[in-house]
Specification:
The complex is a heterotrimer of chains A (380), B (422) and C (339). Chain A contains eleven helices and twelve strands. By secondary structure, chain A is an alpha/beta fold. Chain A has two domains: 206 residues, Pyruvate-ferredoxin oxidoreductase, PFOR, domain III (Pyruvate-ferredoxin Oxidoreductase, domain 3, 3-Layer(aba) Sandwich), CATH 3.40.920.10; 118 residues, 2-Layer Sandwich (Alpha-Beta Plaits). The longest helix of chain B has 30 residues. Chain B is globular, with a radius of gyration of 21 Å. The chains are: A alpha/beta (380), B alpha/beta (422), C alpha/beta (339). Chains in contact: A-B, A-C, B-C. The interface between A and C is large, with 64 and 65 residues.
C-alpha cells in the first residue's frame, strides 16, 4: 500500500491543538522519508465545541498521484490507524445531529490499529469499543487524556508520545527516525524526542478478534430524501413534556431525538439523593436541561442528555452531594434515581464505589500555572 | 404538497380561455407606481415597509397617503435601511402576513442578503423594483442590472411595460407567489422614470373583482405561530443543503404552470392580461425579430410598424417574465425567424460575447432548437442609465439583424453598443 | 354587546401578556421551552440564557434568532432543541426580525385574519449581531412603540461561532483569533468594551425597559425577562454569557465566572424602567457600599484569554473599572462625568 492514513478522534477544542500537532508531526516525518503528506480537519466539525467529538486526518503517500487518488473522497473512510486521544471516546461518538452513535473504530480498516491514550487496560477498553466484523489491533499509550483550552496549550508531550507509538504500530506510514527528525525541526528538542522514543518502546498492541467487544447496537438514522423532507426549511419543534412510565407527577422535558450529546461527556455527575435538599440549583443552572424532575421532587441527571460539563457539581451547596466521576466507571445510561428509589442501600454502595475513582481531569484552563503544576505532579 | 412533476409542460400557442367577466372598474390617470399602490391596496396587504430611494419610492408615497386617508389598513413601517426593510417583511410573511416592499438600484443591493434568504426560505414576498442604474457613479436612470441580480436565487422576476400591466401583474404576482405549490418571492420590475413617473389611463378594478381572483395567503403548516411550533431554517451541512435546493428548484419549475393558470383566470375575470410569458407583436410572418423587456416596447413597436409599412418582415417579442424563463415560448415564437436582435437595457461585463443578460439567456434557451432552425442572435446594449432608445436606433438595429439574416457583413454573435458616443 | 366584546378583544392583543415575577427559585415553572440536544459547548452560558429566556416567556411566544452560536450550535444540522416556534434571521437583523414578526401578528389580528391574543415576540442576537452589525436595526426596533417585542443580546464578548474573533463588545486586551498576543504586540485589542445597554436606554427615551442580566443569577434573569415582556412596547436585555471555549476556562466554572464578573464590578446588573435606574443583586450592594468590589484579577486570571496579561495590564483594567464606579455620572452605567 502506497498510501496510509491516520484518523485522529479527539475532544473538540480541548484537544484541537494536540490533534494538530500530531498531524503536523506525521506530515513532516513523511517528508523526511521523501513521501508526500497532508493534514486536514473535518469541515463539518467546525466550529468545534468544547468536548464534542471531532476528527482530523493525516494522509501519507509515496507520490502526488497516489495522494490525489486517496483524497478524491470527501473524508477518508478507511484508515490504517485511528488515534483516540481520549479513552472515553471508545464508547462511540456522535459528532452532530443525525450522525447517530458511531463506533470509534468505524473508519478503521481490517487489521488496522486503534491507538488510545488511557490509564486503563486493553481489556477494559474492549468492553466499551463496539464490536467489528473483522479483527483489528488495540494499542494503548499509558497516560491521562491531555486537555487544554482555546489559547493556552498544556504541553505535556502527549502529542510526542502518540507520534512515537504511531511509528511502532504503523512503521509503513512513519518511522521512529523520521518522527524524531521531525520533532527536532526547526529546533532540536531532546526532551520531546525522548518522550516519543519512550512511547515507541513501551506501547503494546493486542489483537481484538472479530465480533469481540461491546455488542450493543449503536443508534443510527436514515436521512430522508427531498421529496420526504418538509418544504420551506421547516423542522418540527420539540415537545414540552415527555410522558415517561413510572414518572407520574414529575416532569421530563421533551428532548431532541436526532442529537443526544451524551458522547460529549468524559465525566458524569453521581448524585447522593440521601443528602440532596431539593434546592433546585443543579437543575436551574444546567445549560443542557439534563435534569428530569422525579415524582418525589428530586433532580435526576438524565444520562442521554447530560454532556458532563460539571456545573451541577460546582453549584451544589451540599458537600459531596454531586460528584463528577470518570465515564469509565459506567457501562450504561440508566437513571440513578430509579436505582436509588428501588434499593437505597445498593445504590449507596454503588455510588461510593463510583466516586472512589479519581476523576482528575481539567477541561481547560483553571488558573495560570496550573498545567505546569499538574504535569509536575504526574511526573512524580 | 401536490404531486411532483419534473417535466416542463409544453404550452399551447394560445392557452387562454378568454371570457369577459362583468366588470366594475374606474379609469384613473396614474403612474406605474400609483398603479402598483392600488394593487397593493386591493390585495389587502398586511405589512409594508418603505425606505426612500428614487425612483421606486413613489409607490410608497401613494401607499402612505392611502393609509393616512383611511382607504387602506396595514402595518406601514419606514425602516432604517433597505436591509431592515426587506428583513421586516420577510419575518411578517413567515407569520402569515401578506407583504409588500420595494427598492431601486443600490438600495436593492443593500437589501441583497435579505433578498437571498427570502427566496431560500420560500417566502412569497412581492416587491417592486423601480429599475435604476447601479452606483458608482450615482445615476437615477433606468438599467435592469439591479433586478436581474436576483435571477439565480429563486425570485420570480417580471418586467411590465405599462401602468395597467403593472397593476394587473401585481395581483397575478400575489396569487402565484403565495400558491402553496410555489411559495417563492416575486419582483415586479418597472423601468425607472418611463414607467414609475409617467402617467396613463389605468382601469382600477373593484375590490369584489380582486377578491374573486386573489385568495387569502395561507402559509398552512409552515406558518410560524405558537399553535404550529416549528423551527425554520436550521443550520445544515452538506448532508442536507442539496435536497433543500432541489425543493426550491422544483418550486421554480412548477411556477410556469401556476402562472398559466393565473393568467387564464385573470383573462377570464378581467378581460385582459394577455399571454402569460411573452407578448408577440407582428410575429406571424416575421423573418427577423427583436426581443426586449419593459418600456423598451414602445419605441420598438413604433419602429416595427414603420418598417412593416416599408415591407420589412420584422416582429417583436416582449419578454414579460424573466423568471421562470419562457424557454418553450421563446423557442416557439422564434422558430421561424432567421435572426434575432436582443435589446438589453443592462450589461454583463466579460460574459460570453460580452452580450447583455437577456441575450445570453436567450442564446442558451435556443441552443437545443437547432434541429429545426437556430436563428442568428445579435446582442444590442442600449438605453443605459435611462438614455432614450429612439425609433431611429431601433431601425438601425433591425437593419443589422436583417444583414445577419442574409449573411451580410456581420458575425451573428457580435454585441453592439447603441447610442454610445465614440 | 358584541361590539364591546370585540373592542375588548382588540385591546387584548395589543396589550402585552401579564407575566408575574416568580418570587423564588422554588416558584419557577418546570416547563422547558428550549430543551436538550443543542450542539453547544459544555457549560455554555449562552445556551443557559436561551433556556431561561424561553422558560420565562412561556408557551405563547415566537423567538427569532440572529446568526451566531445560538443559531448554528442550536440547530446543527437540520435539528432543533426549541419547543417554541423559532426562526433564523440574518446576523444584523434581530431588530428587524422582531419588528416584522410583531407587525405581521398585529396586522393579521387587527384585520381578523388570525385569532386575537397577545403573543410574546423575542429576538436574540449575539454581541456581533447586536452590538456591531445589527445595532441600527435594534435602534429602529426600539423606536416602534406600537409593538410589544423584546430584543435580547447574549454577549459572549466575541464572534464565538466563527471561532472567537474580537467584536465591539470584547474586553480590553483579550486574546482572540483576530487579536493574538504576539512577540511585538502583547496587546492587539486596545478598545474598551462597548457600553451597549445604556447607549440604547439613553438613546431611545420611549423604550420603557432596559436591563442587564447574567445567567448565574437565574431567578433575577427570569424575572427581568418577564418584566421586559410584560411592560409593553419594545424592550432590550443585555446578558453577559461566559463562554468556556472562547474565554478558555473549565466549563464547570461557568456560573462562578459569571458571578465574578458581577462581584468585580466589571458587569454591573441594573434595570432602567421608565427612565429610572435601579441597580440590583450584588451590583446594588457594590453601588451602595455594602460590599467592596473584588479585585479584577480574581476574574481575569481564571481565564486563558487573559493568560498573556502582565501586572500592568491587570492594573489598567482595574483602574478603568474603578473609574466606572468612582468617576462616572451614574456609577457603573453612564460614562459621563457629573458637574
Amino acid at each position: 500500500m502506497a498510501t496510509g492514513s491516520v484518523e485522529i478522534v479527539y475532544r473538540g477544542v480541548f484537544q484541537k491543538t494536540l490533534a494538530k500537532n500530531i498531524c503536523r508531526g506525521i506530515v513532516f516525518a513523511a517528508r523526511k522519508q521523501g513521501k508526500v503528506g497532508i493534514a486536514f480537519s473535518r469541515y463539518s466539525d467546525s466550529p468545534e465545541r468544547n468536548g464534542i467529538p471531532a476528527k482530523q486526518f493525516a494522509v501519507v503517500a509515496d507520490t502526488d498521484e497516489e495522494m490525489e487518488e486517496y483524497l478524491s473522497r470527501y473524508e477518508p473512510d478507511s484508515n490504517d490507524v485511528t488515534i483516540v486521544a481520549d479513552d472515553t471516546l471508545c464508547k462511540g461518538i456522535e459528532s452532530w445531529a443525525w450522525n447517530g452513535l458511531q463506533p470509534v473504530n468505524r473508519m478503521l480498516k481490517a487489521g488496522g490499529t486503534l491507538l488510545v491514550t488511557s490509564t486503563r487496560s486493553a481489556n477494559s477498553l474492549i468492553r466499551d469499543i463496539h464490536r467489528k466484523g473483522e479483527p483489528f489491533n488495540l494499542a494503548v499509550v499509558k497516560g491521562r487524556a491531555s486537555f487544554s483550552g482555546m489559547w493556552v496549550y498544556r504541553d505535556d508531550h502527549t502529542d510526542m508520545r502518540l507520534l512515537g507509538a504511531l511509528a511502532k504500530v504503523a512503521p509503513h506510514i512513519v518511522t521512529l527516525d523520521s518522527i524524531v527528525a521531525a520533532i527536532n525541526e526547526p529546533k532540536k528538542n531532546d526532551l520531546k524526542a525522548a518522550s516519543a522514543k519512550q512511547a515507541y518502546d513501551l506501547v503494546a498492541s493486542t489483537t481484538v478478534g472479530a465480533n469481540q467487544g461491546n455488542d450493543t447496537v449503536p443508534f443510527r438514522f436514515d436521512l430522508p430524501g427531498w421529496r420526504k423532507m418538509e418544504e420551506c426549511l421547516v423542522v418540527g419543534a420539540r415537545k414540552v413534556k415527555q410522558e415517561v412510565p413510572g414518572w407520574d407527577g414529575g416532569y421530563v422535558p421533551g428532548r431532541n431525538p436526532t442529537y443526544k450529546k451524551f458522547t460529549t461527556r468524559t465525566l458524569r455527575p453521581v448524585i447522593n439523593f440521601d443528602t440532596c435538599t431539593k434546592c433546585t440549583i443543579c437543575w436551574m443552572q444546567c445549560p443542557d436541561t439534563a435534569f428530569d424532575i422525579t415524582p418525589d421532587g428530586y433532580y435526576d441527571a438524565n444520562m442521554e442528555a447530560c454532556c458532563g460539563c460539571g456545573i451541577c457539581e460546582a453549584v451544589c451547596p451540599v458537600a459531596n452531594c454531586v460528584t463528577m466521576v470518570n465515564e469509565e466507571a459506567f457501562t450504561d445510561n440508566q437513571s440513578q434515581w430509579r436505582m436509588w428509589a428501588k434499593d437505597k442501600k445498593t445504590y449507596a454502595a454503588w455510588r461510593v464505589e463510583r466516586i472512589s475513582l479519581p476523576a482528575v481531569r481539567s477541561h481547560g484552563f483553571q488558573h495560570l500555572g496550573q498545567y505546569a503544576e499538574e504535569i509536575a505532579n504526574e511526573r512524580r | 404538497m401536490s404531486a411532483v412533476d419534473t417535466a416542463i409542460p409544453t404550452p399551447k400557442k394560445s392557452p387562454l380561455d378568454v371570457v369577459i367577466a362583468p366588470r366594475t372598474e374606474n379609469e384613473e390617470l396614474i403612474s406605474g407606481s400609483e398603479a402598483i399602490a392600488h394593487a397593493v391596496r386591493l390585495a389587502n396587504v398586511d405589512v409594508i415597509t418603505a425606505y426612500p430611494i428614487r425612483p421606486y419610492d413613489t409607490v410608497m408615497q401613494y401607499v402612505s397617503k392611502m393609509i393616512a386617508d383611511g382607504d387602506f389598513d396595514c402595518e406601514f413601517i419606514v425602516a432604517e435601511s433597505e436591509h431592515s426593510q426587506f428583513e421586516i417583511v420577510k419575518h411578517a410573511s413567515a407569520v402569515g402576513a401578506r407583504v409588500f416592499a420595494g427598492s431601486s438600484g443600490v438600495g436593492w443591493f443593500y437589501a441583497f442578503e435579505a433578498l437571498a434568504v427570502t427566496a431560500g426560505l420560500r417566502l412569497p414576498m412581492v416587491a417592486m423594483v423601480g429599475n435604476r442604474a447601479l452606483d458608482d457613479p450615482g445615476a437615477f436612470g433606468v438599467e435592469h442590472n439591479d433586478a436581474l441580480a436576483v435571477r439565480d436565487l429563486g425570485w420570480m422576476l417580471c418586467w411590465v411595460s405599462t401602468a395597467q400591466e403593472a397593476l394587473d401583474t401585481a395581483l397575478i404576482a400575489y396569487r402565484v407567489a403565495e400558491d402553496p405549490r410555489i411559495f417563492l418571492p416575486c419582483a415586479i420590475s418597472c423601468d425607472g422614470a418611463f414607467l414609475t413617473h409617467s402617467q396613463s389611463i389605468v382601469k382600477v378594478p373593484s375590490q369584489a373583482m380582486v377578491d374573486s381572483f386573489l385568495p387569502r395567503y395561507d402559509r398552512g403548516d409552515k406558518r410560524l405561530h405558537p399553535d404550529n411550533p416549528i423551527t425554520i431554517a436550521p443550520q445544515v451541512n452538506e448532508d442536507w443543503l442539496m435536497e433543500m435546493r432541489r425543493q426550491s428548484d422544483e418550486a421554480a419549475r412548477r411556477a410556469s404552470d401556476v402562472l398559466i393558470e393565473a393568467y387564464r383566470d385573470f383573462n377570464a375575470k378581467f378581460g385582459r392580461g394577455g399571454e402569460p410569458f411573452i407578448e408577440r407583436y407582428m410575429m406571424d410572418d416575421a423573418e427577423v425579430a427583436l426581443v426586449g423587456m419593459g418600456t423598451m416596447a414602445m419605441p420598438v413597436k413604433v419602429a416595427v410598424r414603420k418598417m412593416r409599412e416599408q415591407g420589412k418582415k420584422v416582429g417583436f417579442v416582449r419578454v414579460r417574465w424573466f423568471r421562470p424563463f419562457p424557454t418553450r415560448e421563446l423557442q416557439d415564437a422564434l422558430a421561424d425567424v432567421h435572426a434575432v436582435g436582443v435589446i438589453d437595457r443592462d450589461f454583463s461585463f466579460g460574459s460570453a460575447f460580452f452580450s447583455g443578460v437577456l441575450a445570453n439567456e436567450l442564446r442558451s434557451a435556443l441552443y437545443p432548437a437547432k434541429k429545426k432552425n437556430q436563428p442568428k442572435i445579435l446582442s444590442f446594449i442600449a438605453g443605459l442609465g435611462g438614455r432614450e432608445v429612439s425609433t431611429g436606433n431601433v431601425m438601425k438595429m433591425t437593419k443589422t439583424v436583417f444583414d445577419a439574416a442574409n449573411g451580410v457583413g456581420t458575425d451573428a454573435q457580435d454585441t453592439y453598443w447603441i447610442g454610445a458616443r465614440e | 354587546m358584541q361590539e364591546a366584546k370585540e373592542q375588548a378583544s382588540a385591546r387584548d392583543f395589543t396589550s402585552p401578556q401579564v407575566l408575574e415575577p416568580w418570587t423564588g427559585i422554588k416558584k419557577v415553572a418546570h416547563e422547558e421551552y428550549y430543551t436538550s440536544g443543542h450542539r453547544t459547548c459544555q457549560g455554555c452560558e449562552s445556551a443557559q440564557m436561551m433556556r431561561l429566556l424561553a422558560k420565562a416567556a412561556g408557551p405563547r411566544t415566537i423567538v427569532v434568532g440572529a446568526t451566531g452560536c445560538m443559531y448554528v450550535a442550536n440547530t446543527t444540522y437540520y435539528s432543533t432543541p426549541w419547543v417554541l416556534p423559532w426562526m433564523h434571521t440574518q446576523l444584523g437583523s434581530a431588530g428587524s426580525a422582531a419588528t416584522g414578526t410583531a407587525a405581521g401578528l398585529r396586522a393579521l389580528m387587527r384585520k381578523g385574519k388570525m385569532d386575537k391574543e397577545p403573543i410574546n415576540v423575542i429576538a436574540v442576537c449575539g454581541d456581533g449581531g447586536g452590538a456591531d452589525m445589527g445595532l441600527s436595526a435594534i435602534s429602529a426596533a426600539l423606536q416602534h412603540t406600537q409593538y410589544n417585542l423584546l430584543v435580547m443580546l447574549y454577549d459572549n464578548e466575541s464572534y464565538a461561532n466563527t471561532d472567537i474573533q474580537i467584536s465591539g463588545s470584547s474586553p480590553y486586551g483579550v486574546n482572540t483569533s483576530f487579536s493574538p498576543p504576539g512577540k511585538l504586540h502583547r496587546i492587539m485589542h486596545k478598545h474598551w468594551k462597548k457600553n451597549t445597554a445604556p447607549m440604547l436606554a439613553v438613546g431611545h427615551p420611549d423604550c420603557r425597559y432596559v436591563a442587564t442580566v447574567v445567567a448565574s443569577n437565574a431567578v433575577d434573569t427570569l424575572n427581568k425577562v418577564r418584566r421586559a415582556l410584560s411592560i409593553g412596547g419594545p424592550t432590550f436585555l443585555h446578558s453577559l454569557n461566559p463562554c468556556p471555549k472562547g474565554w478558555d476556562y473549565d466549563p464547570k466554572y461557568s456560573q462562578q465566572i459569571g458571578e465574578l464578573a458581577v462581584e468585580t464590578g466589571i458587569w454591573p446588573l441594573y434595570e432602567i424602567e421608565d427612565r429610572k435606574l435601579k441597580m440590583y443583586g450584588k451590583s446594588q450592594h457594590i453601588a451602595s457600599g455594602v460590599v467592596k468590589r473584588k479585585p479584577v484579577s480574581e476574574y481575569l486570571l481564571r481565564q486563558g484569554r487573559f493568560a498573556h496579561f502582565t501586572q500592568e495590564d491587570i492594573a489598567r483594567v482595574q483602574a478603568r473599572t474603578d473609574e466606572m464606579w468612582e468617576k462616572w455620572f451614574l456609577p457603573g452605567v453612564i460614562a459621563l462625568s457629573g458637574a
